[in-house]
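ping. complex inputs:
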Amino acid sequence: MWIYEKKLEYPVRVNTTNPTLAAMIIEQFGGADGELSAAIRYLTQRWSMPIGKAKAILTDIGTEELVP
Amino acid sequence: MKNNQAELLEQLMEVGFVLVETNLYLDTHPDDERALRLHNTFSQKYKELECIYEAQYGPLKFTSMSVLPWQYVDDPWPWDVDFGKCRC
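pong. complex structure:
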């Protein structure tokens, strides 16, 4: 199962307003080839992996993709 | 999976389930002392069980320690565990 840890993977520092960059980031996160859909694919495909190593790497990449 | 491993894992899941509920309750009732005591008791229990499980069967989380080779990749994965033989 998943547990939320009340911390960031990496510190966030936003200094300026940049709508163009914001649009790119939103597309990269939730868009057609974004991290959200990739995460769901990794976490679904891991169930049909034949060996532990493959289950592990898909679980952990899928988990990391979901990190906000 | 050895029977003892499945049993220990199931105990951990039970205590973890309690913590899910106390967590949700405390999120909206942070001043409830009785609920907090319940949470802390089970939190302590969870830590102990987790420590025992991981020492014997390897990491439950990627942040945990392991003997060589990295035991986290070992079968069975949670969706392959047969809980049928357990006491539940």
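Chain B has one domain: 3-81.
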